[in-house]
Amino acid sequence: MVDTLLMKNISKTFPGVKALDDVSFEIYSGEVHSLIGQNGAGKSTLMGILNGITKPDKGEIFINDKQVKIDDPNDAFNLNLSIVHQEFALCNNLTVAENISLGNEPYNKSGFINTELINNKAKEVLGSINVNLDINAIVGNLNTSEWQIIEICKALAKKPKFIVMDEPTASLDETQIENLFAIIQRLKENGIGIIYISHKLNEIIKISDRITVLKDGKISKVFNNEKIDESILIKSMVGDEIEIKRKIKKTKNIDYNLLEIKEFTHQNKFHNINLSLKSGEVLGLSGLLGSGSNEILRALFGLILDKKGELIFENNKIEIKSPIEAVKFGFGYIPSDRKNEGLIQENSVKENSILTIFKRLTNLGVFNSIKAESITNEYIEKLQVKVANINNKVMNLSGGNQQKIVIAKWLAKNCKILLFDEPTRGIDVAAKAQIWKLINDFAKSGGAVIVASNEIPELILGCDRILTMNKGEMVKVFEENEFNEEKISMCISTSYLE
What we know:
By secondary structure, this protein is α/β, with parallel strands linked by helices. It has helices spanning 43-50, 73-78, 96-100, 115-128, 144-157, 174-189, 201-207, 230-238, 293-300, 323-328, 338-342, 349-353, 369-382, 399-411, 429-444, 456-462, 485-492, and strands at residues 4-14, 17-28, 32-36, 58-63, 66-68, 81-84, 162-166, 193-197, 210-215, 218-224, 257-266, 270-278, 282-286, 308-313, 316-318, 331-334, 362-363, 366-367, 417-421, 448-452, 465-470, 473-479. A six-stranded mixed beta sheet has the order 6-7-8-3-9-10, sandwiched between helices. Strands 16-19-20-13-21-22 form a six-stranded mixed beta sheet, with helices on both faces. It has a four-stranded antiparallel beta sheet with strand order 2-1-4-5, covered by helices on one side.
């Protein structure tokens, strides 16, 4: 028997934004039905309704032609629906194993949680995707890539009939992605239907049986097992084909050493990092999970304290012991986890945009609201943020537009150095091009940027140099005339240093 899941005539409006307009979406057991569209097209809203997180204004949901009611995530779970969230839903104070079984904990005869079964389940699921992760590690001490893996394992542990994967590969390396695709194939063979959401169009084409395109809250196109390429998908999403594979960066004023890093070391995360950053330069950091590239950015911004080495900024030796000190020196940090670290979700777009310059806008205890609105609107226009009203909560924006707000608050601060951690994670092709333009415009104005990313093609397009990291060690610095995706991938591969 083929199971069916139908979301029929779904509509949803947020303040000032019609997120979904009479959308119908169907999936069968044993298929991968991908859902794509620009940021703000309505993908996450539709899946939030399916998981009981968001209430629709109208519409119905059917499983095997029987109408069902999903008022909360527990209802979804009881209907054998599971979701891999784009935004993490983990308990930082619990272990990896405890998070994987969260909401589905096994109990012994005495009524206590069976720790042994929890640990065994975690080992089984982690082993199925070939990930070596300490099941006893506290999740709050792990990085973003590891959180993504745990979210995937949480969903798989529930043994669902239908599973939603919202940007599941955003923080995975190539080997882990291939392992995930192998698991998806096995899930299909076992009759599980997968709703796959990703901005990586090459993944979509590779993994999908059907593809539904959302545009401005409506169904734009449904592709049924057709031979398609990325250009067709892009055109169906944005109306016009976007030139993706173009050189983003152009001639810049690369001048003097703005920052020198000498013998920079942090425990087992990174060792003896020596590099210089010039005014007008975009430097890429490329490495797999655990390479240390993300930790370098956090250490430079004062989020990691137990580090050694020298920092020379504008020819003066400095110490950065806190983010406050980093900001005073002109550093800005755009974290990979924009939801929890980059923004205050309950605050408005305006409040988040001027967060770094609040004191500047306050005189004798009086806040200049008119000036704040003017600055916010300036950056909304400059960064092409899609928002109906700057007083709307930032939590109602799409991932790509949230990322632009994080960038806006640092541009308003007039920083000298921007630290980007996975700047295009979970955002669409059009927004990626816009963000890389912002990065390079900032460099052209005399600032400098360090970008940590596992998206090698993007680094090649947007950077002046690329530093490869492997197991905490610097492997090679590639100059622009040496850029080669295969060689860079080889340097960051796990086996390179073995």
